[in-house]
Amino acid sequence: MQQLLLKSLYLVAALRYPRFRPDLRYFVRDNYFARISQFRFWKADFVTKKPYKVIEFYGEFDQEVRYAMPFAYWHHLNGTLKQTIAAKNTRPFYFFSPDHLEKHDKRVWEAGYGNYSIPNMTHAPTYDFSKWARVPFKQHYKNELFVYGKPLLVIANKYNIEWDKPPINFLDIPALDRLINGLKDRYQIIYNRPLGGQIVLDNSEIMDLGEHVWLKTNHPDVLLMNDLFEQHCHRVDNFNHLQLMVYANCDRFISMHGGTAALASCFGGINTLLSHPGGGFEHDFDEYTNLFPALSGARILHAKNRDELFRYVEINY
What are the strands, taking DSSP E only, across the chain? Predict the structure, then answer.
C-alpha cells in the first residue's frame, strides 16, 4: 500500500513540477507522504492532546535544525511532547523537552531519507508549517556573560569533506583576513569552527585548515570559540551549549552551507551564508528564501561565491 501511494505521489509531483529533474521529484514525493502520514495522529494531536509523541532523530545536523527541532517544539507547545531522542550533547537544543535522551554517538546522514515520521523531512519547494514552530533559542539563551564593548559578529566557518569531495564551502585564510580587517573596528568578532570531539560527526570528515594558530598570531583581538570553551567549560554543559549562548547575544553572522548556516539562521539579525551552486539541493528548491528565514525571522543573504559574500558584508555590515 505504501509503495503504491509513493508511486502515485511521484506522479503528482511530476505533474505539479514538470520542470524539476526526476531526482528532485522524489524529494517532493517524500514530503507529500510525510505530511499525509500525519493524518493518523489527528485525534492525538488535536482532541485528546496528552503527552505521547516520541521524536527520535540522528541524521544530519542540518536536517535536525530545520525539521526535527521545530517539529518537537510544536509538540511541546501543543502539550503532546513526551520524549526526544538524539545524538550526544544535544540536550541544550531540546531545552524544552520533558525527557531528552542522548542516545547516538554518531550521526548517519542516510537516516533522514525514508523517515516519514516528521513532516517536511526532506528538501521541498514548499513547506507545511502546521506542525512546525520556531524554537526560541535567542530568548532562552540570551545572557550577560558574552557581552563586549562592541556588538558581536560570529564567523561560523567549516572545512570538511562535502558530498565525498574536498571542501567546497569554506573561508580560507586570505578570505578570513579580508573579512576581519574590514569588520574588526565595528564588531567583536568570534570565530567558530568546531574541531573533532566537540560535536557529533556524520560522514563529513573535518580537515585541518590551520587558521586557529594563524588567527592568534595575526588577529589576537578575534576570540576563538574553542578558547571560550576552555575558559567557560565549568559554566556550560558542552560545546553546543556554548554556541547557543554566544549566538543568542549576536545579530550578525557569516556562515557556510549546511548545519553551520542553519544554526546561524536561528537567532534573527542578518546571516550571510556561502553556498556554492552545484552542491546541495537548497539551490534547486530556493530554500534560502522559503525556509531559512522562517527559522527565526532572520534576514538571509545567500552568497554563491566569496566575492558575492564580500559584497554583501560590505553593504550590510
Answer: 53-56, 81-87, 100-104, 152-156, 188-192, 223-224, 252-256, 270-274, 299-303
Q: How far is the C-alpha of 292 from the C-alpha of 283, rounded, in Å? A: 12
Residue 101 identity: L
Residues 224/176, Cβ–Cβ less than 8 Å? no
Beta bridge partners of 303: 274
In degrees rounded to 5, what are phi and psi of residue 38? -75, -15
The third-level CATH classification (topology) of the domain covering 143-316 is: Rossmann fold (3.40.50)
Closest by CA position to 32, among listed 122, 161, 151: 122
**Secondary structure of residue 217 in the 3-state scheme:** helix
Of 119, 96, 100, 101, nearest to 41 by C-alpha is: 119
Please name every residue paired with 125 in a beta bridge, in sequence order, or none if there are none: none
pTM for this predicted structure: 0.94
- Alpha carbon of 59 to those of 85, 105, 171, 314: distances in Å? 12, 11, 25, 36
pLDDT at 203 > cutoff 60: no
Domain with CATH 3.40.50 in the chain: 143-316
205-226, pLDDT tens digit by residue?
A: 676 888 999 999 999 999 999 9
Among residues 234, 259, 254, the alpha carbon closest in space to that of 90 is found at: 259
Strand locations in 217-265 (E): 223-224, 252-256
